[in-house]
Specification:
Blueprint (H helix, E strand, L loop, with lengths): L8 E3 L2 E2 L2 E4 L9 H4 E4 L5 E2 L2 E3 L5 E5 L4 E6 L15 E2 L5 E6 L5 E7 L2 E7 L6
Antiparallel strand pairs: 1-3, 2-5, 3-4, 6-7, 7-8, 8-9, 10-11, 11-12
Length: 125
């Protein structure tokens, strides 16, 4: 994914693997200077998508929840400072998308059972 500032993002299935690349990039790229690995306690990652309305990057967990990052590289948290999980749908959250109205849609698939979860903007439902 490429955010509104032109910074590429990458996610790999597994824990603590979210990369935000800062432009311009050196040749060859250097991790400490050209990018940062972002992590949040207890959050595993799978799919990512950018919000077309707000400066957010949404991420599915591979489990039953999603989380949200500010495109400046910090997680969206709740009042205790922990990452705010959004549980929507069944297990094995995978691909997700945010539509032009800010609604988040996530696909789930587990042993032949598939569902689509939905998170409406502002209401958290």
């Amino acid at each position: 994914m490429v955010d509104g500032a032109g910074n590429p993002w990458s996610s790999e299935r597994g824990c603590n693997i979210l990369l935000r690349v800062h432009l311009p990039v050196s040749r060859p790229p250097e991790e400490s200077r050209d990018g940062e690995w972002l992590s949040a306690e207890g959050i595993c990652r799978y799919g990512i998508t950018l919000d077309p309305i707000r400066p957010y990057l949404w991420q599915s967990s591979g489990g039953s929840y999603m989380c949200c990052w500010h495109t400046i590289g910090s997680p969206v948290t709740y009042n205790q400072g922990r990452v705010l999980p959004h549980e929507r749908g069944g297990p094995s959250s995978q691909s997700l998308v945010v539509d032009s109205r800010g609604h988040v849609w996530v696909a789930h698939g587990h042993h032949g059972n598939t569902t689509v979860g939905h998170l409406a903007p502002k209401t958290g439902r």
